[in-house]
Amino acid sequence: MFKRILIANRGEIACRVIKTARRMGIETVAVFSDADKDALHVEMADTAVHIGPPPAAQSYLVIEKIVAACKATGAEAVHPGYGFLSEREAFAAALAEAGIVFIGPNVRAIAAMGDKIESKKAAAQAGVSTVPGFLGIIEDDAHAVRIAEEIGYPVMIKASAGGGGKGMRIAYDRSEVAEGFNRSKSEAKSAFGDDRVFIEKFIVDPRHVEIQVLGDKHGNVIHLGERECSIQRRNQKVVEEAPSPLLDAETREKMGTQAVALAKAVGYDSAGTVEFVAGQDKSFYFLEMNTRLQVEHPVTELITGVDLVEQMIRVAAGEPLQLKQSDIRISGWAVESRVYAEDPSRNFLPSIGRIVRFRAPVERNGTAFDPVTVRVDTGVYEGGEISLYYDPLIAKLITHADTRIAAIDAQARALDSFYVEGIRHNIPFLATLMQHERWRAGRLSTRFIAEEWPDGFHPLPATGDRAKIMAAVAAVMEFQTTERKRKISGQMKHPHVPGDRRRIVLVGDQEVELEVEREGNGIDVHFIEDGKRGRKRYTESTWKPGEALWLGVIDDEPIAVQVRDIPNGHLMTHHGIEVKVYVYKPWEAFAVRLMPEKAKSDTGKRVLCPMPGLVISVEVTAGQEIKAGETLAVIEAMKMENVLRAERDGTVAKVHAKKGDSLPVDAVILEFA
Fold first, then answer.
1. Entry's CDD domains (predicted)?
2. Burial call 153-191: b when 16+ CB within 10 Å, e when fewer
3. pLDDT tens digits for 214-256?
4. 288 given a catalytic annotation
5. What is the model's pTM?
6. Which residues on adjacent β-strands are paired with residue 398?
């Protein structure tokens, strides 16, 4: 077994690999750019080596620097994680030439499967179901249009060397093919140094199902069941689960058999994933093979009990698999949510900056008495920064339980207690999703987000019982804070005033009237209906004034509510609801009702930068007449190109930005007359 390995990656996956290596008694070496000098993976590793400036092309993607770091530290092997160099044939070859072991598949398998075009040819030869498409060289956008019309719309334009949704576009007509082809080539060149793309038929209402395979250097290959990754935005996975609610035992066996056949055909000898696009009728077609560890690998680990990182290390060291196909048993259900630094209410645009507060849910392993497991894989910490240069992943939250609904409910509770402040994040969206009827029923497709939120995501309104729960929590917090203040010495004795416990709680635009009073270790909340006491809810919590998370029970229901102080009230988040909550005495509420609302400023004539990013191009000039839908500018952020289009007809009055400018969020790009 290896004594020391280097992790050629950063963030949560570097931390994930370090944890397993530490458990196996293996020393670890981290590499870091200038942007990551204070990163968590650097702190966790036994040794760390600086490899260059923040841009990945000058640090994490430079093969020579990784090899030099191995030689300088005596690392015997390299785990590439995912992304960066993980599927680069040249990287594995360079390590082999330097006498360093690559903790991943052999060079031949990477060459065969790492290229999306060649992998489809290999899959067809191995008898795997494939999607109709064109895998040859596409000369230009006119050629792309001709191919798309021969295949039939809609089509998928995809980077041959791509991954993570980059260099990928779906086109429904010839104009979208032309633009999508050019954007895909540009993104592919920037992200992977390879601008080749291919076109294939896009399956309408598809589902994304993948099979985890594991092979060794002795010819043994097994699969560990499937994962479903259909909840996506911009072709990038957001929520994954295992097993899939779509598959039955027969389909699972067929899909697993084909995945193993493909892996054996290319001599695969590590952990890898064979991805399929599946129809609602359980038909399936080969999509691609990822010759690396997947972001979503934890859900497979939790339903099988197999540590995939450990298996990769053991296989790389030459050990034969100790697992047979008959040993693999699927137990329970696992759900993973990717917590991203992005703003879901602004079309999931990236958010960067310092993490002012970071409180992840408490991790725990399931027991016979409480079978729920909660796992958090992260590479960030309180006070750290989300950088412009890398993927905006904050953490992965994984829950496991006996059933799918139990795993979803555990995920919902954990998301409610996942507190991040300082940057925008997608936790409100994830929490909303966990309550969504269609998601809970397992009626999924890769267009789920676009179909369910066609006008963009907006936090759920505070209504019904959830509004009352948030009102109760706010009133209880105010009650506890007042109790604490009254214990300060030197105060006059507080007289009993009839009705002193009555409060009007404003939850968004909804008023909730209630009374609160101490009851043993807890606090009773009486809701006032028609001027009289109605339903009583008993609350109990360990919350103390100033804490950002209210954890407790209301009657028998465990409740977690995030609390951020705002002037005279709180910004509260619970179950996907984000709302301002104010607690008033009756006479205060009367006065508040008479106060006029402050008018919001009009920004309708300005186009603002939706995220911090680099201006790739400005497509208009001052005085130009614009029609709705026309491209105004292209902004690059987190390795993705974002096209800004005109929402309505108009005339450009002034252009403030130019190609190459680095803009902060909400910077003015141009103004309309």
1. biotinyl_domain
2. ebbbbbbbbbbbbbbbbbbeeeebbbebbbbbbbbbebb
3. 999 999 999 999 999 999 988 889 999 999 999 999 999 999 9
4. yes
5. 0.82
6. 336, 375
